[in-house]
Design goal:
The termini are far apart. The chain is about 75% helix and about 0% strand. With about 80 residues, the protein is mainly alpha-helical. Helix 1 packs antiparallel against helix 2 and helix 2 packs across helix 3. The longest helix is centred in the middle third of the chain and has 23 residues.
Amino acid sequence: MLVDVVSGVTNGVMSLKTGVQMLQDAGYPIEDVTEEIERIQQRTFDQAARLADAIGDNAAVREYLGLTGAGPEVLMLLLAVKRR
């Protein structure tokens, strides 16, 4: 189940919400789907900020966040807001 959810979400054929709901339905200890999604997204954003600090490559960070179509100014704004 977990492998299917990870694959589906990673490959864009399943939303994160659907994946987390499937895990909850399968008995994983997820009390609140919305809260779990927020924790996952926060962790992803924190990792992206660390990646930006470590390598300074905005294109790599945009790709990591799935923002390949966004310009570098969008990423810099996101990082600036996060650091406040």
